[in-house]
Design goal:
This protein has 204 residues and is an alpha/beta fold. Helices cover 41% and strands 16% of the residues. A 6-stranded mixed beta sheet has the order 1-4-3-2-5-6, with helices on both faces. Strand 5, helix 2 (79-90) and strand 6 (97-99) form a beta-alpha-beta unit.
Length: 204
Amino acid sequence: MTVYFHEGDLPDGLDLGPEVAIDSETMGLRFRRDPLCVVQLSSGDGNAHVVRLNRPAYDCPNLKRLLTDPKVLKIFHFGRFDIGMFELHLGVETRPVYCTKIASKLARTYTDRHGLKDVSRELAGVDMSKAQQSSDWGAAELSQAQLDYAASDVLYLHVIMNRLNEMLVREGRMELAQACFDFLPMRSRLDLAGWDEIDIFAHA
């Protein structure tokens, strides 16, 4: 594994292929309180690109271009949060998208454990460490441990997606999953608009 570190934006001309695994790191989990600090990406080749964003300008045209490219599928785990952060801070709607957490909940109905650590262990045979999950992502310098952690969150999403797709097709739920993925950017927009803790589809 090689972790490529970039300040501010992805390099000009970088081609990560038609399917890119993406994750982000923030100073917390509240949209308007906690800034977006880091975005990590992988083409599924065993390497990762980690971008420390230049806050608060967020001048990253190459990253924004990738997030909105209709020919590039963006693979997330719990993409609802990342997509919302990208819309809030980068001003872009991320499409098309795939969320391995949604796919897991639709395919792996034999368990209630759908976190990335559990899904990675079962479907990719990888035991991930979450030791750096709550570290300071706004620091002036990121440690090697932080970079390695950020990379690990995207390195296995292609493998996980492929395994989940096999299960979804087998169980006849691929069309249902795709409809959820298509709606996901709008669900993130609802979060930003104040419906983050309200299920508008519930009876009550």
